[in-house]
Amino acid sequence: MAGSSLLLLLDDIASVLDDVATMTKVAARKTAGVLGDDLAVNAEKVTGVRAERELPVVWAVARGSLLNKCILVPAALAISVVAPWLVTPLLMLGGLYLCYEGVEKLAHSRLHGAEEGAHHAELMRRLAQSPQAVLDYERSKIRGAVRTDFILSAEIIVLTLGIVAQMPFLTQVLVLVAIALLMTVGVYGLVAGIVKLDDAGLYLIERQGKGGAVRFQHWLGERLLVFAPWLMKALGVIGTIAMFMVGGGILLHGFHAADVMVRDFSAGLADLALLGPLLAALGPTLAGILLGMVAGAAVLALLQGLGRLRGG
């Protein structure tokens, strides 16, 4: 009797684990786009610190990201049980914040571009002279990255929750935990690799010896040193676009009627010659980016207006 009960228990555990593995794969595919945005945004966020401090900063952001998941997973499960109607408004607020952050970044770059060089030089001078300034700069980078990670993580958690909504509660918990861990390890492992590309190139160039293998390592190191700055600049652009794409996408999905209208319009473009299928595929994404830029600009204008009123 005890043996048969144990076998039944093991069978139940195997069934649950099989469901968890299957649903985790489905959730990973569904959230892959957001994971890419998360990678681009956070890689851009942690650039600009001293080379020897890059990995400690990435590790600090990863710890903050893991703490975000420890808050978001129980909160998402609780809200889905107690007040499921609250998930979408909260997610839209997060999307609006991402849009605002993207527009604020663009506005600052455009309006203060001439001052950026002098400001950066002054910042580097202060960082070189003051260990405390270095710590303050790193903390500001970490806070900004963890804050942005919270919004992106929230979207991934909610998307995953929607995928497993009809599964037993235990399966929901295990899938959410699995996605949270995979997302944190995957994203920040790649971020660490990206920010250390230039160091890897320098290491290869300094290798001693003769022969074809060493010459190839020197050639590869030189290519990495050339590629790393371009990659960082590209991630800055991709990270900004990602803020609009993710934030605008959240807002678009929140307004169901607008989402349906955009998808119907995009589907109609498929009949156009040559670029029709491409436009149909990109239509919802482009609409989300446009909506994100408009919404972010509106929030920025509102906050600036309130600031002027306070100043007055």
Written description of the protein model:
- The protein is mainly alpha-helical.
- The chain has one domain.
- 88% of the residues lie in helices and 0% in strands.
The major pleated sheet works out as: none
Task: Count the beta strands.
Answer: 0
Distance, first to last CA: 81 Å
Query: What radius of gyration results from the CA coordinates?
Result: 23 Å
What is the arithmetic mean of pLDDT?
75
Shape: globular
Task: Estimate nothing, just give the exact number of structural domains.
Answer: 1
Percent helix? over 70%
Give the ordered list of helices and strands: HHHHHHHHHHH
Unreliable segments of 5+ consecutive residues: 6-12
Quickly give the structural class.
mainly alpha
Strand residue content: under 5%
- Number of contiguous helices: 11
